[in-house]
Specification:
Radius of gyration: 19 Å
Number of helices: 2
Largest sheet: 6 strands, antiparallel
Shape: globular
Structural class: mainly beta
Strand content: 25-35%
Number of strands: 12
Order of helices and strands: HEEEEEEEHEEEEE
Length: about 200
């Protein structure tokens, strides 16, 4: 069940959903608008022939800040990581979804590639995966409305919320755009070798 503006306000007033900072005007009929923070991670030129997902990738990017007066220019085909101004906290029985704004989508700005899902128990700012699929550069301004989040109530509270020690949640509490930590999947305790399936032929 998607929460209405009334239900969102009730959850905010009860402190179960936390969005800081928050302006009343950002609460839409079934979502809350979020804004672009200053920090941007830009992919630098690399001598590596490919991105190796088994390695720490933090050296592939450099951190820039969007000037208060001047926009960041996102060029056609360019991919950068940004962050929301807002810090979000979710209870253990509500999941949220991150979506783009229609007005930005109509000029070719995509704000997430796959990371549109915010787990119950999440705490922190959201990393944005910003891509320009248009043929012209797009200006990005600090503080501009960049997307929206909607909320859904779950059938029950989750047994293991995001951030639980046994889950090894990688991004809990992040306060800046955060590069992929996919290499942690290749820790010897987390990935294969997988047992072979029995040969059923013959």
């Amino acid at each position: 069940m998607v929460l209405s503006d009334r239900s969102i306000k009730e959850e905010l007033d009860a402190g179960r959903i936390v969005i800081e900072p928050l302006q009343e005007s950002d609460i839409q009929p079934a979502s809350v608008d979020i804004h672009l923070d200053k920090a941007v991670l830009v992919f630098r030129n690399s001598t590596e022939p490919y991105i190796d997902v088994r390695k720490d990738l933090s050296d592939l990017t450099e951190r820039l800040e969007i000037d208060v007066e001047k926009p960041f220019i996102l060029h056609p085909g360019e991919f950068v990581l940004g962050s929301t101004v807002e810090r979000i906290e979710l209870p253990t029985d509500i999941v949220a979804r991150l979506e783009g704004k229609s007005s930005l989508g109509r000029i070719g700005l995509v704000i997430h590639s796959t990371a549109g899902y915010i787990d119950p128990g999440w705490k922190g700012q959201l990393t944005l995966e910003l891509t320009n699929v248009a043929r012209l550069p797009i200006t990005l301004y600090y503080g501009m409305r960049i997307g929206q989040i909607s909320f859904q109530r779950m059938t029950t509270e989750v047994d293991r919320p995001y951030g639980s020690s046994e889950l090894g949640s990688r991004y809990q509490g992040q306060s800046d755009p955060t590069m992929s930590r996919l290499h942690l999947d290749f820790d010897k305790h987390r990935v294969g070798p997988f047992p072979r399936r029995a040969n059923r032929e013959g």
